[in-house]
């Protein structure tokens, strides 16, 4: 599983990805996330978005950032990396790709691509059992903070 740059060649595949009906509230559509990523970068914030590839197949999407990104965030965001968006297309879920994709993201963040930081945080809807289980398995621990309606969780990089 690897993070690949979004290009003219794969942007349609990325924006065509979807999640199950019951997951619609858990993640923004990728086209909206790409628009937000553009706005962040254009306003000077540190954000990157990638397609997640299994072999030559684009199977998911991730948006990553460092520190404050222009919207209201919990205290743990200060000076930490954030996995802002993460999704595996519904056709590829349940095959271990979410875990492999997150591991690839953590490996990438350990290179400190946007600047120095020791921690990474993310957040999820309290009823998003799949995400919570996945993130717990990868060592994220809920720290009692909230990001709007979402539960925040943090781990060392
Ligand atoms: C959350 C998501 C990324 C998981 O991706 P996935 O490829 O299906 O996950 P994996 O197959 O790698 O599973 C890894 C672990 O996640 C957990 N998990 C995955 N699906 C689950 C489910 N339906 N119920 C409970 N736990 C689940 C399990 O702990 C699993 O480990 P196991 O296989 O050893 O039991 C995927 O369901 C998704 O894209 N959901 C919609 C978008 C979303 O919610 N993104 C996160 C926003 S915070």
Note the main attributes of this structure:
157 residues; Aminopeptidase; 32% strand; binds coenzyme A
Short summary:
The protein has 157 residues and is of the alpha+beta class. Helices cover 27% and strands 32% of the residues.
* CATH classification, class level: Alpha Beta
Number of strands: 7
Number of DSSP helical runs? 4
Bound molecules: coenzyme A
Residue fraction in strands: 25-35%
Shape: globular
The CATH architecture category equals 3-Layer(aba) Sandwich
Instruction: For the record, give the distance between the C-alpha atoms at the N and C termini, rounded to a whole number.
Output: 19 Å
Query: CATH topology, what is it called?
Result: Aminopeptidase
From the alpha-carbon coordinates, what is the Rg to the nearest angstrom? 14 Å
* Whole-number count of domains: 1
Name the CATH superfamily assignment.
Gcn5-related N-acetyltransferase (GNAT)
Nearest-integer average pLDDT: 97
Sheet bearing the most strands, described?
7 strands, mixed
Reading the helices and strands in chain order gives: EHHEEEHEHEE
Structural class: alpha+beta
User: Which stretches are low in confidence, meaning pLDDT under 50 for 5 or more residues running?
Assistant: none
Residue share in helices? 25-40%
Strand adjacency order, main sheet? 1-2-3-4-5-7-6
């Amino acid at each position: 599983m690897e993070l690949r740059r979004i290009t003219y060649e794969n942007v349609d595949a990325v924006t065509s990805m979807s999640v199950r009906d019951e997951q619609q509230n858990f993640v923004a559509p990728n086209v909206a996330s790409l628009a937000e990523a553009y706005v962040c970068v254009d306003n000077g914030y540190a954000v990157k978005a990638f397609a997640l590839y299994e072999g030559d197949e684009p199977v998911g999407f991730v948006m990553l950032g460092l520190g404050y990104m222009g919207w209201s965030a919990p205290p743990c965001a200060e000076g930490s990396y954030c996995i802002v968006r993460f999704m595996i297309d519904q056709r590829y879920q349940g095959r271990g790709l979410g875990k492999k994709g997150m591991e690839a993201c953590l490996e990438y963040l350990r290179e400190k691509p946007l600047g120095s930081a020791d921690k990474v945080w993310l957040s999820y809807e309290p009823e998003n059992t799949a995400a919570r289980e996945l993130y717990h398995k990868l060592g994220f621990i809920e720290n009692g903070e909230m990001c709007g309606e979402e539960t925040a969780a943090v781990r060392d990089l």
